[in-house]
Write a structure and sequence with these properties.
Mean pLDDT: 77
Order of helices and strands: HHHHHHHEEHH
Strand order of the largest sheet: 1-2
Structural class: mainly alpha
Number of domains: 2
Helix content: 40-55%
Shape: extended
Radius of gyration: 23 Å
Number of helices: 9
Oligomer: single chain
Strand content: 5-15%
Low-confidence stretches: 43-56
Amino acid sequence: MVFNKEIIWQTVNKLLHRYRPLLVSLDLQTALPLFYRQNIQTPSVSHQQPHYISALTLSSCHFPDFSVFIPVSESEVHKILSNCPKKQSDSDPIPTWLLKECSSILLPTITNNVNLSLTTDQFHLTLEESIISPLLKKPTLDKEELTSYRPILNLSLISKIIEHVVKCSLTDHLTSNSLLNPHQSAYCKHHSTETALLYIHDHLVSAIGSQKVSCLCLLCMEAHVVG
């Protein structure tokens, strides 16, 4: 019986939810980490003067207190873990599907680690590590150019769980205290780029129907720091 090595590795990678490695030259493999590290250490800074809110303005505003995170229960962590996709990071000690299968045994330990991170305001160094995979932005771009690649960070599963807990806590705080802009679409449940476009389109059509002149100003904000 003849075995095809490529098919075997494809099957293994599929079972372990591994990403297919990007085939690049050896020089590029060496240059990409240095390129990303330089972007982290020397981020591009705008020469324009930023707009600051005066201390008097801040002192006159009342902001709801959010000084501590409320510890989460095992049921909350279990719900987050159940909704996590089966993909994993190479830094994870065990596959995600196996962790889910053993969640009844490992859940108390995971919950304890999450709550320790929240209550001590510390994030373990191993959880800060991630696997960075270069992804070609467009197939037509030059594969030998460093700027043609977008760095994709793949954090460990425990890091993602802690991140999700923090995100839910912050979202609940902002929502319950009406701190979010009512027209915000990003990072809001049941809102997306589609709802934002529909909102703008409706206003433009209404303005045209009322024979009004419309002016649309767009601000593009790009992150130049990899992290």
